[in-house]
Amino acid sequence: MRVLPRTVPGSSQQMRQRSFVVVAVIVGLLVAGTVAAFAYDSTQKSKIAKGVSAGGIDIGGMSESQAKKVLEDKLSAPLSKPLVVRYGHRKFTLSAARAHLTTDVDGMVQEALDKSRGGNFIGRAFRGITGGSVDDNVPSRVNYSHAAVHALVQRVRSKANRLPQDATVQPSAAGLNTVPAKFGVSIRWRQLTKDVNAALVRPDGAREVTATSKITKPKVTTSQLASKYSTFIIVDRGSFKLRFFKGLKLSHIYPIAVGMQGLETPAGLYHIQDKQVNPSWHVPNSAWAGSLAGKVIPPGPADPIKARWMGFNGGAGIHGTAELGSLGSAASHGCVRMAIPDVEQLYDQVSVGTPVFVA
User: Which helix (H) or strand (E) holds 358?
Assistant: First the structure.
């Protein structure tokens, strides 16, 4: 009879059998866990992970449809309200329709789902079972027309801006009247544009922006007038007087002759264009000049333009005359005549650019 060998307790064969069983159990548990994790993860495909928000709105743990409704209520609806810009008592409105404002809720929810599905299914399952979170935010997907914002800002500027006014003088036959400077107002349009852009996409803030402004200064202030108009000439044809002002104050009054009827000294505001000492007379090519028309008469007895010349409108000018009897009358061919000592005195005090107002 054949005797079989006995298995000795603790032998290597018995240990191998036990190790195999343990490994088999572990593998089975891993397979089962993996299958369970996969099955659990499959049920969460349309559910957003905890900790995920969109546009700052918490949508974690919600289904796709729930998240869309929340975003419609808390994001789209508030953003559909008109935005108001206030400046003082004025109000300027930009509607969502005019701004072409749209909110991509579907895209935001899809991005939230994509963030929720990051990593592998085992990690997602573990996070879900243990109550973990993703802690991520989907930025708002809000689109609007920047051209509409620009148009709104321009509307505010056109209504609110006020240009500064330079100080100036208003000449008349009697003298000079000072017109004071005025400060202007200018909307801070760059800041306003920035504020409107931010408010348009902010659902949790007031749909209202306050425009701010700054004071703008004139280029010429009232205190600068005297230096700007250091000299000024007023030709009063009615009284046959030339009034000369220095620093806006009357300095001297001279008797003059002005243009006769049909050849009147031209009324208006001019400036001294050129100055000459002992000028020649360039005779106008006009009928009244007769045989002298178009000629140049050099300084001397035949030249009616004596001592000095100050041209102010391309043809007419202020000059000296030997015909003192004509002063105080309308006797010239359009120029302003002065006594020779007077024209020499005036000549030395004015420069090219001095205003000449013929009243």
Answer: strand 355-358
Task: Return the H-helix or E-strand segment holding 187.
Answer: strand 184-187
Give tens-digit pLDDT for 275-329. Answer: 999 998 777 777 676 666 767 778 878 788 899 999 998 889 999 999 999 999 9
Structure token digits, residue 267: 């009324």
Is 146 a known active-site residue? no
- Encoding tokens for residue 161? 């801006």
Question: Rounded to 10 degrees, what is the CA torsion of 84, 87, 91, 92?
Answer: -60
Looking at residue 75, the DSSP 8-state letter turns out to be I
What tokens were used for 20? 């195999």
Is 319 an active-site residue?
yes
Which tokens go with 103? 């909110």
Indicate the SS3 state at residue 311: strand
Q: What is the total residue count of the chain?
A: 359
Distance between CA atoms of 233 and 265, rounded to whole angstroms?
Answer: 14
- State if pTM tops 0.70: no
C-alpha Rg value of the chain to the nearest Å: 47
pLDDT tens readout for residues 170-226: 999 999 999 999 999 999 999 999 999 999 999 887 899 999 999 999 999 999 999
**Is the pLDDT confidence value at 119 over 60?**
no
Residues whose CB falls within 8 Å of the CB of residue 156, separated by 6 or more in sequence, listed in order: 85, 87, 90, 92, 187, 189, 192, 211
Catalytic site residue from 89, 150, 282, 335: 335
